[in-house]
Design a protein that fits this description.
heterodimer; A: about 500 residues; alpha/beta; Aspartate Aminotransferase, domain 2; 2 domains; 3-stranded antiparallel sheet; 15 helices; 12 strands; disordered C terminus; B: about 450 residues; Aspartate Aminotransferase, domain 1; 7-stranded mixed sheet; globular
Chain lengths: ~500, ~450
């Protein structure tokens, strides 16, 4: 199935919209500053709609079927939350309107900060960061500012386990710190002997995902936090896997000083084909003054009995803030959806969501561990990591199993991550998948394992049912084509 | 509502399969003293209750569908064709994630490829990435790109003071841990040419905005050429709607063009989610941050699309990546692509002309009000500053109370010396009557 590029559907002179005529006197245009051409598509409105509907039919989303992409928490995105975010009071307010005219928005920001603080045990939360990696940058900059405020400028080392997301070392470097990779022990925990070697005056802190990307809760979390703190370091929590933690444990209680949330994962906001996300950061009282801002505050009679004009919700920069990380107030529309999710589940519902996410992952792990190797045989958290290796089918790789899953109607799991597990298949079913769906997913994997031995070409040639076959990624990088050009120009552009 | 489908019987069956007698046992690894803490959260709401609570909360805001507004300053109220909302509501598109599996993500990938193509056309650049969080973060990332392009030897940035104040703040935060010096001029209205004197052999780039924060359009070609002679790069922040009318920065010698794509079909949404666009010249492609979609072929020789040049990115390069960015603003980029498709060549030019004429009409009317002076000496697009006879913040509050009009954005919070100055923005959604009402309200509030 090939869909033309939108430009290829056009004809000169066509347009998809009409606008009101100019109802004011026209002013002279500055001739020397005007452009002479504008190469945009010229298409009818129906062309545009059919084009994007056809593109959507070439896509797989959570609403199409199970999407167990490990580490991404592809749970159901409740439709009511979409409707709520589009209410004009939320969708059609300008970020620079006077505070008195957006008290509802500021109240929502304030209540969301409170809810995330309650779930995590932190003292304050900033909703500024737009994604998980953005929250990481915030957290590492806060740790940097904290050490600098104490004159501890030699603390430049951030410890990061080898199972961590690539964003952790990348954020560390962006914040001007030096990442040092820590190996994991045979049970998938942080290797404490290795950790002990880095506990000195250079230590700024440690970034830890817990449960980690092996889908395992670190069995020595309290010891790790204590060791890092005793050496003067701070604990950064990567909240990518918070879907296993709601109502189960508060990261602040486990010794984390600062953590980001991924609202698009844990709190059921749609992933949008790559974003938008939202990555709020929470911090203990020690780090709270350094949070990025502004953040929402409530001033009521108890705070200022005299000045009634000040009562209400306001935006304020924390006292020693690392500053702004984004224009305006974070990805507000995402925050609205996530807060609606929190309000619909409530405390018991959120805990139940985490419990069922963990149960579903353990169910899949149990059902598959006799056909695919399980590198760490422990109770898993909200995701399980298996290996795409089939006994008696040496030519089969994790990627082949993944591509064959597409033919069976499923989205593949995450491949080749975490990096420390050869042929990793990281499966995160999420709590919103039913037993029937989990069973059919497990049956598909079992059938594929059998196919791997009986007819491996089915896997090597997969997918056969997708709109396109396997794509040549090497060619894409070598013969770089990053934009459409008419046939006459495109050959010249190849290099 | 938890959206959990398991029946009690199924739950029992699953626990048995896993080999535990209750879900609590799945969490034995959590230190007991911290396991299952109490959560003090508001009670769960059914769907109708939820709808009601949030409707009430939303009604605590004065939305711009029901008010007259001349607010801009980085977020713009434009008409969004109905089709944009319909396309971004296709759940095959909005419930997908980053297209790591290209065979089942051709919809997302082709849409991004088309977005890249249209942004290149609009800005006049060779390549464009799949989006940043917003214009401010795209600008901050451009600093990292220009420093890498100078192989780290040039570590100074010259920033025009007429770049959006929040963008400048974000650049300062982003680079606070890096060995980078950002210099700027004291006079907020310093033009790009006058900043050239601050550029030397340590300068990685000069950052200018056009139309700038005060609305003024700058001729960039002479600046670009002088800058390139000194071995530095030109980064331009721009307003995408203005490019329906104005010369693209790429054609004037810009090395990187960034901006906020919100005006292209994305709602204001109290400031986000918007999107940052980022375009660059061919020579900078391998140093740019963010995701890129490239064209290729499948095993049958058919055209298809994949994420490409991933070796720049954090999931491959980890601590040595060009940026930490992972999740971007994909759905907002899709909205921008649909907007640019449906508006097309003629529609975008028409919107840009409407903004231009209406803003100039508004400035002319305001100039006739006693005590007010709109800055019209320098060419401008759809925003301009107005010198008021009194504190602009107080004036705006009075006008909102008296006439229900948001008159503009007072410059005082960011420029304390400009307390009487108001930044006024006019777009195609502002009618001739609204513009007359604004001028009338200014007169009345100062009578």
């Amino acid at each position: 199935m090939i869909e033309p590029i939108i430009y290829e559907l056009g004809r000169p002179g066509r347009t998809g919209i009409d606008l009101p005529a100019c109802d004011v006197p026209e002013s002279p245009l500055p001739r020397e500053l005007l452009r002479d051409d504008l190469d945009l598509p010229e298409v009818s409105q129906l062309d545009v709609m059919r084009h994007y509907v056809r593109l959507s039919q070439m896509n797989y989303g959570v609403d199409v079927g199970m999407y167990p992409l490990g580490s991404c928490t592809m749970k159901y995105n409740p439709k009511i939350n979409e409707d709520i975010a589009r209410l004009p009071g939320f969708g059609s307010t300008h970020p620079l309107q006077p505070e008195a005219t957006v008290q509802g928005n500021l109240q929502l920001l304030f209540e969301m900060q409170q809810a995330l603080a309650e779930l995590s045990g932190f003292d304050a939360v900033s909703l500024q960061p737009a994604a998980g990696a953005h929250g990481e940058l915030a957290g590492v900059l806060m740790i940097r500012a904290y050490h600098a405020s104490r004159g501890d400028t030699q603390r430049q080392v951030m410890l990061i386990p080898d199972s961590a997301h690539g964003t952790n070392p990348a954020s560390t470097t962006m914040a001007g710190f030096r990442p040092i990779e820590l190996p994991s022990d045979p049970r998938g925990n942080v290797d404490l002997t290795e950790l002990a070697k880095h506990l000195n005056d250079d230590l700024a802190g440690m970034m830890l995902t817990n449960p980690n990307t092996l889908g395992l809760f670190d069995e020595q979390i309290t010891q790790i936090s204590n060791m890092v703190h005793a050496a003067g370091g701070l604990m950064y929590g990567d909240g990518a896997n918070f879907n296993a933690m709601m109502g189960i444990a508060k990261p602040a209680d486990l010794g984390f000083d600062v953590m980001h949330f991924n609202l698009h994962k844990t709190f059921a906001t749609p992933h949008g084909g790559g974003g938008p996300g939202s990555g709020p950061v929470g911090a203990t009282v020690t780090l709270a003054p350094f949070l990025p801002g502004p953040i929402a505050q409530r001033i009521d009679e108890a705070d200022d009995p005299a000045d009634t004009h000040r009562h209400g919700y306001h935006l304020q920069m924390p006292s020693r803030s690392i500053g702004r990380l984004k224009a305006f107030h974070g990805n507000y529309g995402v925050i609205v959806r996530a807060y609606a999710y929190i309000r619909s589940l409530g405390a018991a519902g959120l805990r139940q969501a985490s419990e069922m996410a963990v149960l579903n992952a353990n169910y899949v792990q149990t059902k598959l561990q006799d056909v695919l190797p399980l590198p760490y045989d422990r109770t898993c958290a909200h995701e399980c990591v298996l290996q795409g290796i089939v006994d008696g089918a040496d030519s089969i790789h994790a990627l082949d199993i993944s591509k064959r899953l597409i033919d069976h109607g499923f989205h593949p799991p995450t491949n080749y991550f975490p990096l420390i597990v050869p042929e990793a298949l990281m499966i995160e079913p999420t709590e919103t998948e039913s037993l029937e769906t989990l069973d059919s997913y497990c049956s598909a994997v079992r059938r594929i394992a059998k196919e791997a031995i009986d007819s491996p070409e089915l896997l090597h040639n997969a997918p056969s049912s997708a709109p396109v076959g396997r794509l040549d990624e090497v060619r894409a990088a070598r013969q770089l084509r990053l934009r459409w050009l008419p046939a006459s120009k495109s050959n010249a552009d190849d290099r | 509502m938890t959206y959990i489908p398991h029946t009690p019987e199924q739950l029992a069956q699953m626990l048995k399969t896993v080999g535990v007698d209750s879900t609590d046992r799945l969490f034995d690894v959590i230190p007991q003293e911290h396991r299952f803490p109490d959560l003090d959260l508001p009670p769960a709401l059914s769907e109708p209750e939820l709808a009601d609570v949030f409707r009430q909360l939303s009604e605590q805001n004065d939305d711009l569908d029901h008010a007259t507004s001349f607010l801009g300053a980085g977020a713009y109220h434009h008409y969004i064709p109905s089709i944009v909302g319909h396309v971004v509501s296709r759940s095959e598109l909005y419930t997908a994630y980053t297209p790591y599996q290209p065979e089942v993500s051709q919809g997302t990938l082709q849409a991004i490829f088309e977005y890249q193509s249209m942004i290149c056309a609009l800005t006049g650049m060779d390549a464009c990435n799949a989006s940043h969080y917003d214009g401010a973060t795209a600008l901050a990332e451009s600093i990292i790109t220009t420093i890498a392009a100078g192989r780290g030897r040039r570590r100074q940035v010259v920033m025009a003071p007429s770049v959006h104040p929040q963008y400048r703040q974000v650049c300062a935060s982003y680079t606070s841990g890096m060995d980078v010096d950002i210099a700027t001029a004291g006079n907020p209205r310093a033009t790009p040419e006058t900043l050239l004197s601050m550029v030397d052999n340590q300068t990685a780039c000069l950052i200018v905005q056009s139309p700038d924060y005060f609305g003024r359009i700058h001729d960039l070609a002479p600046v670009a050429s002088a800058l390139h002679d000194m071995g530095a790069l030109l980064v331009v922040v721009t307003h995408p709607i203005s490019l329906g009318l104005l010369k693209p920065p790429g054609g004037q010698g810009a090395d990187i063009v960034v901006g906020d794509g919100q005006p292209l079909g994305n709602p204001l949404a109290f400031g986000g989610p918007h999107l940052g666009f980022f375009g660059c010249t061919k020579s900078l492609v391998r140093r740019m941050s963010g995701r890129l979609v490239g064209e290729t072929v499948d095993d049958g020789g058919n055209r298809g699309y994949v994420l490409t040049l991933s070796t720049r990115e954090q999931h491959i390069r980890r601590g040595k990546a060009s940026s930490n960015i992972c999740t971007n603003q994909g759905l907002n980029a899709l909205a921008a692509a649909v907007y640019l498709s449906v508006m097309g060549k003629q529609g975008l030019a028409q919107v840009a002309r409407l903004c231009y004429h209406k803003a100039h009409h508004a400035a002319t009317l305001i100039n006739r009000v006693a005590g007010f002076s709109a800055e019209m000496d320098h060419p401008f697009f759809n925003e301009f500053t107005v010198e008021c006879p009194c504190d602009a913040t107080d004036l705006c509050a009075r006008i909102y109370d008296q006439a229900g009009i948001v008159a503009g954005y007072p410059l005082k919070p960011d420029f304390p010396d400009l307390a009487n100055q108001l930044l006024v923005c006019v777009t195609e959604v502002n009618s001739s009557e609204q513009i007359a009402a604004l001028a009338g309200a200014l007169a009345e509030a100062t009578a």
